Amino acid sequence: MRKEEIQGLWLGLAGVVIFALTLPMTRLAVGTPADPQMSGVFIALGRAAVAAIFSAAYLLATRAPWPTREQWLPLAITSAGVVFGFPLFTSIAMRYVEAVHASVIVGVLPLATAAVGAMLHRQKPSPGFWACAAAGSALVVAFAVLKAGSGVALHPADALLLAAMGCAAVGYGYGARLSQTMRAEHVICWALVISLPVTLPFALATRPQHELNDSAWWGFAYVAVFSMWIGFFAWYRGLALGGTVRVSQVQLVQPFLSMLFAVPLLGERLDTLTLAFAVAVIATVFVGKKMPVQLARA
User: Fold this and answer.
1) What beta strand segments (E) does the chain contain?
2) In 3D, which of 178, 193, 195, 180 has the Cα closest to residue 85?
3) How confident is the model over 236-256, as pLDDT tens digits?
4) How far is CA 122 from CA 57, 169, 173, 224, 260, in A?
5) Which residues lie below 8 Å from residue 126, measured CB to CB, with a gap of 6+?
6) Which of 140, 192, 236, 245 has the fewest CB atoms within 10 Å, counting from its CB?
7) 198-236 pLDDT, tens per residue?
């Protein structure tokens, strides 16, 4: 692999580690049906509004140029995926499922991101690469079915989580494409700023009206600053350097990092079966990144 591809993988991994805390922290912020905290709508739009304020300051400080006419539509699509779709669907769903459960659904994201990336960037992964991606995703699905304990039935919130994965894949793909023509950190900043006229009024309208646990505010602060903002600096840069198809496979470790974080943060249980699947999925990532991927020429 080229030096920039290796750098892209490391930056992608840094972004994944940051994103891996998103589900546990969202669970802290939203609470449970027995002990509700913030509403899912407030968490989703509130975190975007907070991150947009930081983004506006950053764009001014770095004297970022205005997006070109050709960049506005991809920015809007990126915003729809990662500023609205993913946060809204996951925040609503997380009140009804544990972070460990939700984490396994995230396992379909690498394959979805790779598919979007291949389409947008005209990348041509080898059959071996797709075999590894499919094997990793199949392992995650098998894990979800085994942990469900009721045949192939999944929780209704899983539909929201799957929708969130689709939104994230599209947002990641278009964001990575924009990172080829503008600074990676500017992509998420502009996506957040152009969303502010919508996110801020709705966040204020849905703000909590009752006393909340301190942990809920800490969870909200994390998803606003790290999940919604800083994590994308590393992630979009990694996708731009290493290629969306290849770097997206690093996401296969994200479900299991989320599970590891959920144990101390939420008191959820991590068993031998989960660890066994974690090792198997990480193995597919290791093999998959060795497979050839023909990158589009600049």
Assistant:
1) 124-125, 293-294
2) 195
3) 888 888 877 778 778 878 888
4) 35, 16, 12, 33, 35
5) 291, 292, 293
6) 140
7) 999 999 999 998 899 999 999 999 999 999 999 999 998
